[in-house]
Amino acid sequence: MKKILIVVLVTVAAILNPVKVFAADAWAIAAEALGVLAAYQSTLRDMLVLGNDVNAQMSVRKQDMEHNGVDKNKRDVEIVDSVMTRLVNGGQYELRVNSLPFVWSVNDSEKFNAACYPMNYISINRGLVRGLNCDENQLAAVLAHEMIHGIEQHSAKSYAKAVAQQLGAMMIGMNVDNGSNIDWSKFNGMVGYSIAKNISVPVEYEADIGGFYIMTSAGFNPGGCAAAMKKLDYYVRYETQDIFEFDAHDKSSDETFSDHPDTENREAKLLELMTTYGGGHVTVRKADRAYRVFIDGREIFFSVNIGDDPTSAAINAYYFAGALSKAFHDHDTIDGWNFRRVGNRTEFLTDDFAYRELHELATLYNLGDKLKTLIELAYKYESPQRRERIRAADAERKAVWDKVKAEADSAKAKAAAQLRVNADIYNDHGQGELALKEIDRALRATNQDDIAECLGIRGRAKAICGDYDGALVDANSAVERDPKNLYNFLNRADVHHMRGELDLALEDINRALAIDEKNSIAYKLQGDIFDEQGNSESATESYRKVYALTKKNPRAIPLTYLEKIDAKAAEKIHKANTKRADKKEKSNDNA
Known about the structure:
By secondary structure, the protein is mainly α. Helix content is 64%, strand content 6%.
């Protein structure tokens, strides 16, 4: 009864004011009414801390790959990497100050799904990539949708809601201050349950809408969102055998209780978005099993199913219409369409990726001349107000993201310092590109309290990425700005180390130790360099100091040296490693 009451409260709030209420976290209002607000807020705080934990992000990605396996198809991975890179680097969005940059992987699960975890790790199943036939526009739609869940921190709020309802308490007591200790089985269970059952319908629509604008701004075909939803609808209705994977409805009015709204409703809303994006010029209508595309009410394209794919008629129509909508959106006059004669055909626009299907279909059915005529009429009778609405909507979206960026840039000193720490941890994980993203945000922050260390961290990140000259410039600048900070010397030592300048690296380590002779990081780097030089005696002494300073942490030093320093501890690790290897081998045999 409690669950039903909560859903009703959320739904009523959405009806009254769907945008403002949910932006302010509508479930908190319901939680307060039900007397569970404290549990909700406490868990939400913990989840937001976890969502800003680089170690947690790296741990979840690693465990996902270990648990579900890595997609062995190179093409799957390359396409997802290409799509995600375009979305992350080219899409219009901004991260909140306590959100991490996105990372992703393609696992070997055959389920038609993807998920965004609270720390902006997007897990993509092989089954989704194959189910969408490796279609880049449709993948962009799904992955941009998941990005919005991360940007808006939906999964953190969803889990907090589940805990407040006492439906997801398996995670209570988890040490969120050390994300590297996450128990994957529990954490993945939390995501699978609480996100699936507690992300409300309006939030799913919010992710659909936000994802549409991220993928279109990144240069994908605006029809890709409706096309992906058509594929999802077909999968839900005719292909999946897992009754828990999706909650299909007998009636669309039942969608309030589903983890995802009715797919037909979502498809229709995404088509409306596509039409609005192009100023209302382009529409798609279904007639029996065919789909017709219109420009201002005049038919330009008629699409029917081709081959064995029952979704091909809709998808071809959506891509044809989506490309037209993009062109109407991007070009204020017909001049931008660049109609021209090439041989015996009328060509138009550019070879831009988003226009690919439009060009193919227009060529196949010889539609160039007809298209030119209808586009001329569209601009001839277009009212100035229609063009103004397009630009006003663009400006409004930009203003929203500008505000998010401004709030992140002006965040308090503690949040600004965390950006610097996050970048440093990314460096520790060898993730130089992610470190550069975080340190750029840290340097942009008006309340950043240590510019010198930021430069040192950026130098180390550049070296990891192979920019050794740029790395040294930053590392030198850090030391010059603040020679009292031992970490500036250690960052430069690591840069020298990666440049192969081992003697210079050792000099910087000695300078750092002159500032603090009990710094375990300095001794660890020193031991690594001595080991590379073949000086095992000096390396042993350095590692011995690391062992003492880290309170005899056996994982802090290489096993070959641990055998010399603490043979018993080394033997325990050997046994644990052997046991783990045997367990993995047995698991592989059973699979």
